Amino acid sequence: MKHRLKLVVLLCYLLLAACQAPAPGIGDSPLAAPAGRGPAITCTVEPAQNYHNLNMESIRLTTDYVLALTPYGFYRATLKEHRWVHLHCPGNLPTEGSFASHVQPTDPILFSTKQGLFSTSDNGNTWHLVSNAYSFDNAFVHPDGTLYAITTIRFPCPESIHDAKSALDFLRGKSWNHTCRSRSFIVMSSDFGQDWHDITNNIDRKFYLQRISPDPDHSDLIVLDGGAFNDYILQATDKNYNWQMYKTSNWRKNHALSSQDFFAKDYRAQTHYYALGATLTNYFDYNFGEQVYLPGFDLLTDQTDYAFVPAGSKIITATIKFLPATDSAQLIDLKDSTDLWGIRILDSAGH
To answer: Over 70: is that where the pLDDT of 33 sits?
Structure first.
């Protein structure tokens, strides 16, 4: 009788615990973790010494400062005096991660790491743990206050993958619940990291999410950049977050770029990336902004504005000027000893 009574009590306890357990996020996914909080993490400001050619791994601009993540931690400089200081932070603030996406320099400064999501409101002097619910790849605070984040879950490889058929099934994604694939998720919080909801929904499991941006068509929503073999934009029409996928090139045709994005330099090569990396030494010598790399050269034309006529042709003379801080290198000849360059043309309507 006593054993039976103990068993009944145990069952009641388990049922009560199950009823009180936090509900999983929206959709069927393994994301169901409570957010964590912690005390303030205070950094000390020290003079920057022996920092020459220290590479920047992530950059965040504010109204008056630039924050830089380096292999040796955080550094900060004023945009006016260009003088670097070292922010010596305790070990409970990770130094491997990246600053989160943002819109305005005055937006909250978030730092995404595998150990959690951190924020600072005083340009890096003091940090607070926003959430340690997930391993955070990127984050974004929407102008309406909603916090969005990208996280990647990596599933362990099963011991059963040892023959050709199992390996092929694994590569084709047929055994999703028992594979060592990684998968991207998008989560949101309406209370700045206290509670999270998974809004991945219908995003394909092979799709890797990279960036979060405000939706130009819906003021209270976001769009996602990512892809598998090609680049895509994911967009939802309401807060049910049923995502529509568009090729980035097609989506851009119907959405105007900002002046900064339109005139931004973009250099890509398949076999050689000739670029200038941002360091604490050269950052203020070139227009890095929040980019850790710039093309290692300037493409100069003999004039800034050209007039075109329909069906007409015009010869544009361009000069390649290598930046003095970079080593000389030969550019790739793509075909018939001709380098391929693209020029953006802005018409009278601003398109």
So the answer is: no
